[in-house]
Amino acid sequence: MSKQPRKQRKLIYKAPLHIRHKLMSVKLSEELREQYKRRSLPVKKGDTIKVMRGDFKDHEGKIEKVDLKNYRVMIEGMSVQKPDGNKVYHSVHPSNIMILELDLEDDERNEIIERKG
């Protein structure tokens, strides 16, 4: 693995979907960390999160959409009005959010949580 910034950037830009999914990992709240013995999990539509940095700091809401192509997350209630009157989601990078509540309806996700490190 190279330490050169250009190669690190290239890895992120050219990453396949299964690696992009892992790069979308978000840290868990203190309660979830103790409960699941994990520090972070890949984010998923339906999770309840809290924004830690940026214009919408301390905003809590459910995830509406996960954009793997641009490494962004869209959250309900976080929209900005454009000059023409349309409302668009204000996207957030996963490094700036924290998961408060997990969506555990998916069996594959339950397997990921139960799997040992």
From TrEMBL:
Signal peptide: none annotated. InterPro entries: KOW (IPR005824), Rib_uL2_dom2 (IPR014722), Ribosomal_uL24_euk/arc (IPR005756), Ribosomal_uL24_KOW (IPR041988), Translation_prot_SH3-like_sf (IPR008991). Residues 42-69 form the KOW domain. It comes from the Archaea. The keyword Ribonucleoprotein applies. One of its GO terms (cellular component) is large ribosomal subunit. One of its GO terms (molecular function) is rRNA binding. It holds the Pfam family Ribosomal_L26. Keywords: Ribonucleoprotein, Ribosomal protein, RNA-binding, rRNA-binding. One of its GO terms (biological process) is translation. Part of the 50S ribosomal subunit. Located at the polypeptide exit tunnel on the outside of the subunit. Belongs to the universal ribosomal protein uL24 family. HAMAP family: Ribosomal_uL24_A. This is Large ribosomal subunit protein uL24.
